[in-house]
Design a protein that fits this description.
By secondary structure, this protein is of the alpha/beta class. The protein is built from 9 helices and 9 strands. The protein has one domain: Carbamate kinase, CATH 3.40.1160.10. Bound molecules: uridine-5'-diphosphate. The site of uridine-5'-diphosphate has 23 residues, from α1, α3, α4 and α6.
């Protein structure tokens, strides 16, 4: 069964996704693979914007548990996302994909400041827009940033690449009896406490009826299939 074909998408990449098997830092081979996947979406005419996390470098909550002031630690986390964004921009530009990085924390020497209307214009011109530094405020996550920017950019869907092929009843790497959902409601995700995205992000998507598709980032060709409406990954939406 075919799903919808999407014209404008927001891709959420966690920091871990860029780290590959090492679990930390940036794996340039993984970056290459992801850049190819993004390029294939552009070649199919899909408008693409991206929110990149920073968990492969620094996570605010972790810093806070070690005695750091939470807000200071979160600012470090936001700066970590900027490193990832520049690495992704570099990988894409080497493949001749036009990009712009827009940062929620101004740093004009390396990125444009986040300006909603300008970002939309970039998308219309076929440029991939990469959003850096989260929403620019502590106590938020890049999942929530992804939901917010997807809404601001009028995206048709939020796609989230992970290391498994969708949402499961339990972590399939730990529980062999876990089964995959083909589709699921936002409310179900919240009530079952499924670790798809944080609750703020899910709620924001639910309130604004923005569909989410969770898919396997490690399977070549899947990203394009997702945006072309093929039945892959798990669709989170309003009704079953
Ligand atoms: N962060 C923040 N505000 C934001 C987005 C991110 O303070 O709007 C900080 C927060 O400390 C977070 C870190 O940046 O832990 C890295 O982002 P996240 O954990 O969302 O990255 P991911 O899990 O996607 O790799």
């Amino acid at each position: 069964m075919k799903r919808e074909k999407y014209k404008r998408v927001l891709l959420k990449l966690s920091g871990e996704a860029l780290a590959g098997d090492a679990g930390y830092g940036i794996d340039t081979d993984v970056l290459e693979v992801i850049a190819n996947e993004i390029k294939s979406m552009r070649e199919a005419g899909v408008e693409v914007c991206i929110v990149v996390g920073g968990g492969n470098i620094f996570r605010g909550v972790k810093g806070a548990t070690k005695g750091m002031d939470r807000a200071s630690a979160d600012y470090m986390g936001m700066l970590a996302t900027v490193l990832n964004c520049i690495a992704l921009q570099d990988a894409l530009e080497r493949k001749k994909v036009n990009t712009r990085v827009q940062s929620a924390i101004e740093m004009r020497a390396i990125a444009e400041p986040y300006i909603r209307r300008k970002a939309i214009r970039h998308l219309e011109k076929g440029r991939v827009v990469i959003f850096a530094a989260g929403v620019g405020s502590p106590y938020f996550t890049t999942d929530t940033t992804a939901a917010l920017r997807a809404m601001e950019m009028n995206c048709n869907v939020l796609i989230k690449g992970t290391s498994v092929d969708g949402i499961y009843t339990a972590d399939p790497k730990l529980d062999k009896t876990a089964t995959r959902f083909d589709e699921i409601t936002y409310m179900d995700v919240l009530q079952r406490g499924l670790k798809v995205m944080d609750t703020t992000a899910i709620t924001l998507c639910m309130d604004n009826k923005l569909p989410i598709i969770v898919f396997n980032l490690r399977e070549t060709g899947t990203m394009l299939k997702v945006v072309q409406g093929d039945h892959v990954g798990t669709l989170v939406h309003k009704t079953n």
